[in-house]
Amino acid sequence: MAWRRSLKAVIDGTNRLFSFACHTLLAVITVVTVMQVFLRFAVNSPTSWSEEVALLCLVWFGMLAVAIGIRRHEHVAITFLRDRLPEPAAVTLDYFAQLAMGLFMFVVMLYGGDLIALAGAQVLPASLLPKYLLYLPALAGGGLGVANAAANILLRDVHTAETEIPEVAHVD
């Protein structure tokens, strides 16, 4: 099915792009935090904006990483019930889980839009950046999460017996 290959290429390419953004955000958080600690304790001249910038990067990182985790199936899951069900019922339960995650991310997106409207033209006090930048990740991460959950459903990318992760062998 050509449309599935195209959808997989688009969604996986989008996730690679946002994954790169997450790596970049972690680097910025690290640099800004190390700089702030150095300036505060070594030079005794801290910046006023560094904590807000690190917070903004952390919020963006968190929302994007949660959405990417949906596509990669990297979220914590309690599989006790699913692992004891027959394969068709287990797969159905996994489709339901993808649907629930997509619905949750849609709600995050909706409320993120409300928060952006509520923030209006406010600015963060130290950095003078627009306050809506704190809430914009809810739209971006929510949208990506909805797209990833939908892609997992449409691509039939859910748990099956063939995708079982093997146990790690213990060496004595």
Automatic annotation (TrEMBL):
| Membrane-spanning intervals of the chain | 20-41, 53-70, 91-112, 132-155
Q: Which domain of life is it from?
A: Bacteria
Q: Where is the Tripartite ATP-independent periplasmic transporters DctQ component domain?
A: 29-155
**One GO term describing the cellular component:** plasma membrane
Q: Where in the cell is it found?
A: Cell inner membrane
Q: Which UniProt keywords apply?
A: Cell inner membrane, Cell membrane, Membrane, Transmembrane, Transmembrane helix, Transport
User: Which InterPro entries does UniProt cross-reference here?
Assistant: DctQ, TRAP_DctQ
Q: Per the record, a Pfam family?
A: DctQ
A GO MF label: transmembrane transporter activity
Predominantly, its location class is membrane
Q: Please list which residues make up the signal peptide.
A: none
Q: How does the record say this protein sits in the membrane? A: Multi-pass membrane protein
Sorted alphabetically, the Gene Ontology BP terms of this entry are: C4-dicarboxylate transport
What does the record give as the function of this protein? Part of the tripartite ATP-independent periplasmic (TRAP) transport system.
The entry's family comment says:
Belongs to the TRAP transporter small permease family.
Assembly and oligomerization: The complex comprises the extracytoplasmic solute receptor protein and the two transmembrane proteins.
Name of the protein in question: TRAP transporter small permease protein
Q: What is the source species?
A: Roseibium marinum
Its ancestry begins with: Bacteria, Pseudomonadati, Pseudomonadota, Alphaproteobacteria, Hyphomicrobiales
